[in-house]
Amino acid sequence: MSTVRVALTQMACGDDAEANLARQLALAEQAAGDGAQIICTQELFRSKYFCQAEDHRFFQLAEPIPGPSTEAFQNIARQHDVVIIASLFERRAAGLYHNTAAVIDADGTLLGVYRKMHIPDDPLYYEKFYFTPGDTGFKAWKTRYATIGVLICWDQWFPEGARLTAMQGAELLFYPTAIGWHPTEKAEYGRAQHESWELIQRSHAVANGCFVCAPNRIGHELVHGLDNAPVHPDGIEFWGQSFVAAPDGSVMSRASADREEVLVVDCDLARVEFSRTHWPFLRDRRVDAYGDLTKRFIGL
């Protein structure tokens, strides 16, 4: 088949992890009912975005892979012949935790995991407290319907990750995401922040001649401390707007900023070959001249 139907899910998350999982599973079932063949969740859908605070309590949210969530998604994959990318807080071992995407093929097989490589540490995005940087490298998987690559949120700002994944044959890049505005900054910076986020990923589609699919969460989230007071009075207003970009960088479809949705998009994989032969960036790379990319900085 040349055309693959992709579904991205976006939803608001609450404090009840099991309720969040049940809601996400229902959205996956809905996507399968809409004919989706590859389904991708938003980042860390089982909880509120707890990285707004550095709090050891939140390590209790992590789970092993394989584990209860992957088993539930494997059941849906088998029942509906769908590929599923599920973003989870992984407990790999005592004291070793990752921000991880599980990749499940259409027969329910757990093909493997991708562990987030780039870990941010910004105001209200204190991920370095929780997540060990990934050691999987950048990976692509040949699933029943397409060869896919998976990266996670902060990875989307780095062209190297997209390139190395595309070089393994990925036709579609998926970026499970949890990104939003600091409410006090939204008026001044909000539009530019969102446009930058979308633009950088659309550029990955162009530079690599592939589809880019980015599901993002919605909702205004306040994370509470032990005293039941918000750890930050403003929290994060997640901007949703999950989207799929074509190999020419055009946005094929975009979800709303504030509604729960299943975004379903038909991706014609013939466009990948067309893009890579008409704009032959992979052919014309000067691989003999890029050695300095492995250095931290080049200067005096």
Commentary on this structure:
With 300 residues, the protein is of the alpha+beta class. The protein has a single domain, classed as Carbon-nitrogen hydrolase (Nitrilase/N-carbamoyl-D-aminoacid amidohydrolase, 4-Layer Sandwich). 23% of the residues lie in helices and 27% in strands. It contains 5 helices and 17 strands. The strands form 4 sheets. The chain has a 6-stranded mixed beta sheet with strand order 5-4-3-2-1-17. Strands 8-9-10-12-15-16 form a 6-stranded mixed beta sheet, with helices on one face. Helix 1 packs parallel to helix 2 and helix 3 runs parallel beside helix 4.
Q: Which stretches of 5+ consecutive residues score pLDDT under 50?
A: none
Tell me the count of domains: 1
Total beta-strand segments? 17
Quote the beta fraction: 25-35%
Instruction: Give the structural class.
Output: alpha+beta
Distance between the termini: 53 Å
Order of strands across the main sheet: 5-4-3-2-1-17
Name the CATH architecture: 4-Layer Sandwich
Helical residue percent?
10-25%
Protein topology:
Blueprint: E1 3-10, H1 17-33, E2 38-40, H2 68-80, E3 83-93, E4 96-104, E5 110-115, E6 121-122, E7 125-126, E8 140-142, E9 147-150, H3 159-166, E10 172-174, E11 180-181, H4 186-208, E12 211-214, E13 218-221, E14 236-239, E15 243-245, E16 251-254, E17 261-268, H5 270-278
Parallel strand pairs: 1-2, 2-3, 9-10, 10-12
Antiparallel strand pairs: 1-17, 3-4, 4-5, 6-7, 8-9, 11-14, 12-15, 13-14, 15-16
Helix pairs in contact: 1-2, 3-4
Brief characterization of the structure:
Helix content is about 25%, strand content about 25%.
